[in-house]
Amino acid sequence: MARCHHLLLLFLALAALGQGQSHGEEASAVFIDAASHRYLRHQQAGDQDASMSLDEVSAAVSVLLGFAPPTSLPALSSLQLNKVLLPNPFDRPRAVFLLQIAGSNALADSFVSKGSSIFKTKIDGANNAAPGLTDKDELIVIHSDESLDLSRSDYLDVELSSLANWLEGSYQKSRGKLVIPLESGNSLTLLLDKEADLKFAASLASLLNTIERAIQVHEDFSSVVSPAELLACHFTGMKALEDEYGSTETVKQGTEIVRRAVTKAFQSLNGEYKGKIVGLVVSTKEVSSSLGSIIDAPSSVHISRQLEEASKTNATIAPVVLVRKSLAWITGIILLVSTLIGVCLLMNMPLTRDTLLYSNVKMD
Fold it and tell me: Which positions make up the signal peptide (predicted)?
């Protein structure tokens, strides 16, 4: 049952979004398709204002991960999934990049590049009951961590330097500034002694770390097994900027930077996963703990356990493969040497009447 626990948490998390929305919160979602491999239908003009329940969004994520939708899903909801997903059940990405962004000005489609193939929808309420999976399902959860260890200056410097390089900006350690350029030619300067600016930088650094960790885990598993992979990121930096600066130019610049970061993140994942991944950006007005339950400790334990099993499998198989390859090479060399010796003996055989070649030949 531990293997299905994480996806149950996902459904409970999405259901929590629905409960929050029933109290006045609004939520929107955008599915992002890979450019090289399509898993989503083209959104029709009449479906631009489409809406889905949390159960339907949960079921869509389940199908994309390669699992069957819950049997409790109503027929109308199944038709709704058919509007979003291509019908081929044998071609699913089995990897989903799920990003939740909080902020009153946060609309999911504003964080998605215009060049991406998307299916956008509003999120309606959901039932409290969360569907589940059987314990045969394999799922890896890569979770984000927005906290930066401020007690270790060396660690903080490395994180911020990596973030600056990723966004083509600069980290000015002596002045406590992180400068990120914008497409307009201007730049956003984050003062790291301000809590809001530091939280925004921490959210960006968390996104980068999650992507790098996901790529590493994917590489570790790709040669052994092919489990479903869920990347769950929780971005609260936009809400922090809004609380500090309101609806100012700083918030608009922050939105542009987040959009660029999401685009770069999905491009990196798309290249590493060879197009077999779908993104899902969910935006809510307030900071919600809906995805909090999905990024708990058991996720890391689950990954470590499977990595240990994979390494044990490699350790067991490697000696067998080595012995078989050695025997094959030795046998091949022996046969080759034997053939060469036989050819040499035949070529140097004396041509006399007593030889084997002329034993049955009658000569005058």
Answer: 1-20
